[in-house]
Specification:
Layout lengths: L1 H7 L6 H26 L3 H4 L10 H15 L6 H26 L13 H5 L10 H15 L8 H20 L16 H17 L4 H7 L3 H29 L5 H45 L10 H17 L8
Length: about 325
């Protein structure tokens, strides 16, 4: 009865699924805020978080709402799962319609629906209100990944890899002030809030997999996974931070090119050496703890729990040891 009741009891949402739900909710919220505050109330600071940079289009924000809802409903079943699939399909249709305008030169009249892009017209943009082709391709890949998540093919990670890479390139461009990575003249032409939302969705889709490789790496408790979870953020954040500080110091005249390069190199060497020493010490402690547990298990396996005397297994192992030692030294195993 206990087994049956435990199987019938509803299971709580696991940690990785909570990450998926949170990522979907935040992405949908970003899109909703941009639609309402940025376009309905014409707040430019919401459309473009950094003044003078690319702004998120209204259609882009709408597709983020659809993708966020689809990701939010990923753990659901029944009708709610069908709603999530419908949101993914609608997102794919919208993105494909915009892409057809670029590819075939069609004019479907959806560029500035439902809000007129006055700022884009003032800047003499070729297609005001229309998202960039790179953004649309990312939405197609994201929509397909959300549609096939419940199938047995497990290709979500492959589909979301280019989306995460483009979003990371956009954010790096904003952090390092490289307009070629995000500006109007770039191929990406992506707003800062667009890059953030794409990264959230990519992270949520990866964690939505039941048996994804990255999900196992980030959620299991074996020493390799624990070490990877500790080192990957350092491997990403430390070089980015040091590179940004080096460029900022050179731009502000704190030091020149050669001194800045030397400082960057030496700091990275010190950080890398420290990380290696820390990782080696952590692995050594883990291995020592494992060896102590193995020795304890071996002792318990060959010892009686009550009398602490050798049991049959312990006696057989000791006998084999003594016989091997006697054979090695050509001496009798026992004396009478």
């Amino acid at each position: 009865m206990l087994g049956l009741s435990s199987e019938a009891a509803p299971r709580s949402v696991s940690g990785p699924r909570k990450v998926t739900v949170v990522c979907g909710a935040v992405a949908a919220l970003i899109g909703a805020v941009v639609i309402v505050a940025g376009w309905a109330f014409n707040v430019a600071a919401v459309r473009a978080l950094i003044p003078g940079t690319v702004a998120m289009k209204a259609s882009t924000a709408l597709m983020f709402v659809l993708c966020g809802l689809a990701l939010l409903l990923t753990p659901a079943k029944g009708n709610r799962r069908w709603i999530g699939w419908s949101c993914s399909a609608v997102c794919i249709v919208i993105a494909a319609a915009f892409l057809s305008e670029y590819v075939f030169g069609w004019k479907l009249g959806i560029d500035e629906f439902p809000f007129r892009d006055a700022a884009g017209r003032a800047d003499k943009i070729a297609y005001p209100g229309r998202p960039a082709p790179t953004t649309l391709v990312c939405f197609v890949l994201t929509g397909v990944a959300l549609l096939v998540r419940h199938t047995r093919w497990r290709i979500e990670e492959v589909l979301m890899a280019p989306v995460a890479a483009i979003a990371a390139l956009c954010l790096a461009g904003y952090a390092y002030s490289i307009p070629a990575f995000y500006g109007p003249a770039s191929a990406a032409k992506m707003a800062l809030n667009t890059g953030i939302a794409f990264l959230l969705i990519a992270f949520g889709v990866v964690f939505a997999q039941e048996d994804g490789r990255l999900k196992r790496l980030l959620s299991t408790t074996d020493p390799g996974s624990v070490m990877a979870r500790r080192l990957i953020p350092l491997a990403v954040l430390v070089p980015l931070t040091l590179g940004w500080l080096r460029l900022k110091g050179q731009e502000d005249g704190v030091f020149g090119l050669r001194v800045g390069t030397w400082l960057l190199t030496m700091t990275e060497i010190v950080c890398l050496a420290g990380v290696i020493i820390w990782a080696a010490s952590s692995l050594s402690r883990t291995d020592g703890h494992r060896r102590r547990l193995e020795d304890e298990l071996h002792r318990l396996a060959g010892e009686d729990e009550l009398t602490h005397l050798a049991n049959r297994r312990g006696f057989s192992e000791r006998l084999q040891r003594e016989l091997s030692l006697a054979s090695r030294h050509s001496s009798p195993g026992a004396r009478f």
